[in-house]
Amino acid sequence: MLFFGPPGVGKSTVAKIVGDEYGFAFYEGDDEMTGEERKLVSNGQWGDANRRFLLSRMGTRIDQLYDGSNLGLVTAAAMTKEWMREFLQEQTIVFLQLVLVVSLVSQSEMEKKVADRHAAGHPITVEAFRRFTQQFEPPKIQHFKISNPQDPARQWELIEQMDKILKQLK
């Protein structure tokens, strides 16, 4: 499963919770980025050629991890454009079930979270977050959706939503 959505919605957090709950392997797509690539993102110099190179590496890594997993794999990446999701699917032999993650918190709360994460080393700045959020293309192909309350006390809601998705996939 590929958990995707705009920056800051909690894709990685949701994917980790799902992975832990169901025993799936977890892969953080952002971990594939090099230091130089993170600088390009932060400086606003990240282009489609960079994205294709990163997505190719991610596809290879997804195949490797899925092949070594007993139950399955969950991964997380922003994938703001439809072509990115399609391109990543072409780069892997694994069929990626798409799960759109959306946030239930306000834009200002999201910007605060993004600023805190950036201060801790994440490449996305608040300005980039705004730009990527504005550019996000909702998926046109079949996908599932999880609404993230972004509240650890409400983690059970994520599990309930995932239970429904897994039942639909059976």
Would you write up a description of this structure?
The structure is a single chain. This protein is an alpha/beta fold and 170 residues long. The protein has a single domain (2-169), classed as P-loop containing nucleotide triphosphate hydrolases (Rossmann fold). The protein is built from seven helices and five strands; from the N terminus they run E-H-E-H-H-E-H-E-H-H-E-H. The protein has a five-stranded parallel sheet with strand order 2-3-1-4-5, sandwiched between helices. The two termini are 14 Å apart. The mean pLDDT is 87.
Helix/strand layout:
Elements (H helix, E strand, L loop, with lengths): L1 E3 L6 H12 L2 E4 L6 H8 L5 H20 L5 E5 L4 H10 L6 E6 L3 H13 L6 H10 L8 E5 L6 H15 L1
Parallel strand pairs: 1-3, 1-4, 2-3, 4-5
Helix pairs in contact: 1-7, 3-4
Which ranges are low-confidence, i.e. pLDDT below 50, for 5 or more consecutive residues?
none
Question: What structural class results from the helix and strand content?
Answer: alpha/beta
CA-based gyration radius:
15 Å
- Work out the strand percent: 5-15%
Give the SSE string: EHEHHEHEHHEH
Assembly level: single chain
Roughly what is the average pLDDT, rounded to an integer? 87
Helix content: 40-55%
Q: Tally the helices: what do you get?
A: 7
CATH level-3 fold name: Rossmann fold
Distance between the termini: 14 Å
CATH superfamily: P-loop containing nucleotide triphosphate hydrolases
Tell me the strand order in the biggest sheet. Answer: 2-3-1-4-5
Name of the CATH first level: Alpha Beta
Largest sheet: 5 strands, parallel
Instruction: Give the number of DSSP strands.
Output: 5
| The number of domains | 1
What is the CATH architecture term? 3-Layer(aba) Sandwich
Task: Please tell me what the overall shape is.
Answer: globular
